[in-house]
Write a structure and sequence with these properties.
Elements lengths: L3 E3 L6 H4 L5 H17 L8 E3 L17 E12 L2 E11 L5 E10 L8 E10 L6 H16 L5 H8 L8
Antiparallel strand pairs: 1-2, 2-3, 3-4, 4-5, 5-6
Helix pairs in contact: 2-3
């Protein structure tokens, strides 16, 4: 099986998250609809899912983050510079599910790191936090970032990273 993509209404939540109750899937659908409604005009709401990662790959987690569900929102992409938001559900090295909300910018360091994650929120799914509530919190964080400036230089400045125009 390979990656599949489409609108959130196409995401097979019961197949991807068989241990979550229907109420959790409903919470996720409502949160995704809220996020998709806030996307910038022209940013088609596309979600990607990876059926091959439904079960934790065990030791293979150390080779990379096995994502189950992901969406990205491009806020700025001009002249080799960019600012992007991402929301994903992934496996941790410990074999637990995690919702990750991240804001990243292009790197302008002397050594090109490609990207810097300015802000990254990891929401563990455990006995205290359900899949639905972690997903809602991740969506909420992306919606907050959508209200912030969409200029990558602002985010680099706030984080003390090298600015594009003075690097």
């Amino acid at each position: 099986m390979t990656m599949q993509s489409g609108p959130f209404s196409s995401v097979p939540l019961p197949a991807l998250f068989p241990h979550a109750e229907a109420a959790e899937h409903l919470r996720m659908r409502r949160a995704a609809a809220a996020l998709d409604g806030e996307r910038p005009s022209g940013d088609e709401p596309t979600w990607e899912w990876f059926p091959q990662h439904i079960t934790c790959p065990g030791a293979d987690v150390r080779r990379g983050v096995p994502e189950i569900l992901l969406t990205e929102i491009s806020l700025y992409d001009k002249e080799a510079d960019w600012l992007e938001l991402a929301l994903g559900i992934e496996w941790t090295v410990e074999g637990h599910l995690n919702v990750c909300a991240a804001l990243s910018v292009a790197c302008w360091c002397t050594e090109n790191h490609n990207a810097h994650f300015i802000d990254e929120r990891n929401l563990a799914i455990d006995r205290h936090t359900s899949l639905g509530s972690a997903f809602e919190a991740g969506v909420g964080r992306l919606i907050e970032w959508l209200a912030e400036p969409w200029d990558p230089e602002v985010w680099r400045f706030r984080s003390g990273l090298p600015l594009r125009w003075v690097s």
